[in-house]
């Protein structure tokens, strides 16, 4: 019969904050630099459920998108940097350095069967 390993209360366990995902990308070049450096980028609000849906769809296709999370206080600044105006709804998807659109456009392109060829052309999918 196996014996249980004794529990020690003196061991320091990592706090949940130490186990969290890596922090959102922040580069000196901002969003534009991230878009240029990665084949697929999802720019969205921090903790947004729609950004999660976009990432899950792309992960389901075999693509590992780069997530750029925008804090609430920086939304207008990021929108102006990327689009020249503060009139943008997040999430926004960039493929191959070009703007594809939001969740609605991504779903439309996926349903029509055009998404996989676009991802292959961008080098994000090798199948």
From TrEMBL:
Q: Where is the composition biased (Polar residues)?
A: 1-11
Q: Which UniProt keywords apply?
A: Cytoplasm, Redox-active center
Q: Where is this region: Disordered?
A: 1-28
**Cellular localisation:** Cytoplasm
Residue intervals of the Glutaredoxin domain: 40-99
An annotated GO cellular component of this protein is:
cytoplasm
Family (UniProt): Belongs to the glutaredoxin family. CC-type subfamily.
What name does UniProt use for this protein? Glutaredoxin family protein
Species: Rhynchospora pubera
């Amino acid at each position: 019969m196996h014996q249980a390993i004794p529990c020690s209360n003196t061991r320091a366990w990592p706090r949940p904050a130490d186990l969290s995902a890596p922090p959102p990308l922040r580069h000196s070049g901002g969003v534009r630099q991230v878009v240029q450096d990665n084949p697929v980028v999802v720019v969205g609000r921090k903790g947004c459920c729609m950004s999660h849906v976009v990432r899950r769809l792309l992960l389901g296709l075999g693509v590992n998108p780069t997530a750029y999370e925008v804090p609430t206080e920086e939304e207008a600044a990021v929108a102006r940097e990327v689009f020249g105006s503060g009139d943008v709804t997040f999430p926004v998807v960039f493929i191959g350095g070009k703007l594809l659109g939001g969740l609605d456009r991504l779903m439309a392109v996926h349903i029509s069967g055009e998404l996989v060829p676009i991802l292959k052309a961008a080098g994000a999918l090798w199948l």
